[in-house]
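task queued by scheduler; priority normal; single chain, no ligands, no partner chains; default sampling; output format set to structure tokens
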Amino acid sequence: RAISLLEKRDQFRGRSVLVTAGGTREPLDAVRFLGNRSSGRMGAALAAEARRRGAEVTLVASNLLVPAPVGVDVIQAPTADDMARETLARGDADVVVMAAAVADYRPAETAEEKRYKDDQPWTVTLEPTTDILRELGAGRDPGTRSVLVGFAADRGERGLERAREKLNNKRVDLIVFNDVSREDIGFDAADNEVVLVSESGERRIEKAAKEWIAAAILDEVAA
């Protein structure tokens, strides 16, 4: 049956919800970093919606370009290492939603001073960061009633196929796929369009404001 707005207001009361949001920045030197275009808008919308539904919400925020929601506990995590440490320390929440765009690689060495421009190439060696979602999935109790949600920002049908693989490989309950090949949704946009991938099937949420998408994702979590 349809759930009323009044019922949704208390849907997560007594539950803890952990949301990650934003994009990590991996320092190259004293002034430069490797980063991505994530504003944190999707994660902030998820945290706000979970709070509206009565949850105790912690937002692990990485360089947000939007205001953090009122009434949530905000933990700053600017780098992938920071995000891994703060998220894994709180991974026992009833619901964990990994909406942040965490760097897959970071510079193997970071210069303490600014590197000044010259006529020589600058070769940077990158090393992999901690796969936080995989760590969370591997550490779960098989009988747990908690819900783990991952995001997959990828391109086209091949990206959707990788999202399906990610569901099983990382032992999560739900993958939210968004197609970043489109300029009207996802990064740098107020709207999104996603495919919710779970063991029970797939459901496309058509293009809408990220606040609406957040509500649809949490409806799926509640179900």
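post-processing summary
- Residues 152 and 177 are 5 Å apart (CA to CA).
- The chain has six helices and twelve strands.
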